[in-house]
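Please describe the entry underneath.
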Amino acid sequence: MHAARDDGAGIRPAAVPAPKAAATGAAYLRLEGVHKRFGGFTALQAIDLDIPRGEFVCFLGPSGCGKTTLLRIIAGLEVQSAGRLLQAGRDISVLPPAQRDYGIVFQSYALFPNLTIADNVAYGLVNRRQPRAQIAARVQELLALVGLSGSGAKYPAQMSGGQQQRVALARALATSPGLLLLDEPLSALDAIVRVHLRNEIRALQRELGVTTIMVTHDQEEALSVADRIVVMNHGVIEQVGTPTEVYREPATPFVAGFIGKVNRLDAVADGGQWVRCGDQRWQCAPQRGPAVRPGRPVALYLRPEDRVVGPLREDDPALCEGTVLGIEFLGGNCLAEVAVDGLGGQRLQLQYSLNQMDEFHVRHGARMRFALRTDRLRVFEAQEASA
């Protein structure tokens, strides 16, 4: 994202108009003005999105945001109320699912319990009337690809959840589709299996180069596997960007609050790139969007890791002191909740590694000194932030 020029009129907030979610380069899949209404309820509105060939995209958002509906429209399992879809230049807007070029993996796997693993994987190939020997060779190739060689004679009930998901993935890839759709494919798995399998899916996608769309509500999952993330809320796209962009440069208050842990502070624009938060006055980096007039309330968003604990400069305008009110243990890291002097009772969560907890004596009730990375502050006009 490019920083806006500071004309001295006031803070330029991070908020930007609703994005036209297009990527550079030719689009393999293009969505133009997609709307979806269920009676009087609008599930999707004005969805514009370009996905280049070979990209791994995650649709991310809370339950009910429209991400699964959008995936089902791409698959032809739902019909859009307006708009059109193009895949490799072909208009697929009204084509039935069987005439679209994709493979899909559902959250429930949807394996046929009465068929062997080999027959499940071969299902799409049999329907295409391919020669039996060719089908058998392709099934063995796919089972090896997903790490299930020798499992073809088993039935789904004999496989673990992670193994069943691999079978579903192999079946989706059997016909060599141009597009792979994954609908919350890992949500039913245990945490350790989920992490392992998502890494396998990402490695496999890179190896095959298949354009992939995955629906998920898991932020960590999206951040770890996606080339780009489409953040959705209430049927609209809030932001499209790389994992780093949506985490470090959220375009809207929703994205700032939804992606990862974040502190929100009430403040007032103070002219130029300055904000006043309680008794503190901080200078922010240039922000995108229209300037906020001095004196207007703003909301500041800052990640728990965006702080300096040492060495500290005594003349640093972002130098703070406070009292540790509580500590949340997260394994290798901890979050310390700090009541910061001069912020009018507002609190911050600050992240420390276990080694830093010992080095800086971060304990319940302890006094602390630190400096905020004010260049990392994201500024939004307060009205927008509360919308």
The longest strand covers residues 27-38.
